Amino acid sequence: MRGIEIQKNEPVDRALKRLKSMLDGEGILEEMRRRRSFETVTQRKQRKERTAAKRHSIRWRFQRDKAEDTEAK
């Protein structure tokens, strides 16, 4: 189970926000939502297309940064 350390004098809502952002970054919240109800074939295809688009945009951004670094040398 994932968790966070609450710092001294930290508001609970800020700690909760940190927890949610950590879970969201790891994909745990999306998986919980997905498992909550039945997913049709069409919905599964749409979800996979969304995640692939997000994954490719991140990959493209980092590849572009590497290409710019090698050109600068």
Automatic annotation (TrEMBL):
InterPro entries per record: Ribosomal_bS21, Ribosomal_bS21_sf
GO molecular function term, any single one: structural constituent of ribosome
A GO CC term assigned to this protein in UniProt: ribosome
One Pfam family in the UniProt entry: Ribosomal_S21
Feature: compositional bias, Basic residues: 44-61
Superkingdom of the organism of origin: Bacteria
Tagged with keyword Ribonucleoprotein: yes
One GO BP: translation
Protein's name according to its UniProt entry: Small ribosomal subunit protein bS21
Family, per entry: Belongs to the bacterial ribosomal protein bS21 family.
Secretion signal, residue range per the UniProt entry: none
Biased segments, Basic and acidic residues type: 62-73
UniProt organism field: Oceaniferula flava
Region of interest called Disordered, as start-end residue ranges on this chain: 39-73
Gene that encodes it: rpsU
UniProt keywords, alphabetically: Ribonucleoprotein, Ribosomal protein
